Amino acid sequence: MDFRVEPGRRVGVLGGTFDPVHNGHLVLAAAARDGFALDLVVFIPAAQPPHKQGEPVSSFSHRATMLELALADQSAMVVSRMERQRLGPSYSIDTLRELRQNLPAACDLFFIIGSDAFAEITTWKNYQELFRYADFLVAERPDLAPGRLAHLLGDLPGFTPPAVESSPGLAVDPDLRPWRHRLGGLVYPCSVNAVPVSATNIRARARRGQSLADLVPAPVAAYIEQNGLYR
Questions:
Q1: Measured in Å, how far apart are the chain's first and last C-alpha atoms?
Q2: How far apart, in whole angstroms, are the C-alpha atoms of residue 25 and residue 17?
Q3: Cα–Cα distance for residue pair 7/156, rounded to 1 Å
Q4: Which of 52, 67, 173, 199 is 20 to 30 Å apart from 218, CA to CA?
């Protein structure tokens, strides 16, 4: 791996295409880091995004460089280019398996994901196996569709809802307690004040020559302009 972690650390993983990375990604990572006492959040850009095959995607080098610019002043956040080392589509199951094999055994591993993406998880390769390797932190806006995660999990096989009594250190509200997968992984709701921004909108604005201020970090906006991305 291209980053180091000490034994006993709590590590979050945030994967995606990041074309480009935007402020919504950073808010999600910070919410997971602060809400679950993560020691490190690792951003892992997909080398070959499996759900975007056949679609135009910026080069891996551009996407990874923009991530490094965005995280330069972020506490406890790093970029890993590990998926660049594998051939074929960048499946999350392969990444989590590799991480679990290479991280110290005492490390806790958390996969950070938005609720919209989690709603599509049955389309992922070997999705049930994902919960063998990591716990999940699923982003939920507290003001939108409370309990959506519980509804999604209730429709998936292999999950057990939280016990009636509260778990130590967790809120009494059952919507805030983790569900458990039969392979051991826990799924927690992660409260996030979502930023109304999308990579699709950013690319469209860049194509029209419009400002990207407040949508992406300033160094990322400058990089997009300097390299003529999305034109």
A1: 34
A2: 11
A3: 33
A4: 52
pLDDT computed for residue 142 by the predictor: 66
Write down the number of H helices and E strands in the chain. Answer: 8, 8
A 10 A CB-CB count for 144 gives: 9
Return the structure tokens found at 34.
């602060």
Dihedral of the alpha carbons of 218, 219, 225, 226, in degrees to the nearest 10: 150
Architecture per CATH, domain 10-196, reads as 3-Layer(aba) Sandwich (3.40)
Q: What angle do CA 51, 65, 213 make, to 5 degrees?
A: 90
Report the mean per-residue pLDDT for the chain: 91
**What SS3 state is found at 116?**
helix
In whole angstroms, what is the distance from residue 189 CA to residue 178 CA? 7
- Separation in Å, CA 193 to CA 43, 126, 150, 184: 20, 30, 19, 29
How far apart (Å, rounded) are the C-alpha atoms in residues 195 and 172?
Answer: 27
**41 beta partners:** 12, 77
Question: Quick one: which H or E segment has residue 131?
Answer: helix 130-133
Q: Is residue 18 predicted with pLDDT exceeding 60?
A: yes
d(CA 82, CA 105): 19
User: Is the peptide bond preceding residue 161 cis, with omega within 30 degrees of 0?
Assistant: no
Domain boundaries, the chain: 10-196
Residue with tokens 């295409």: 17
Region 88-98 average pLDDT = 96
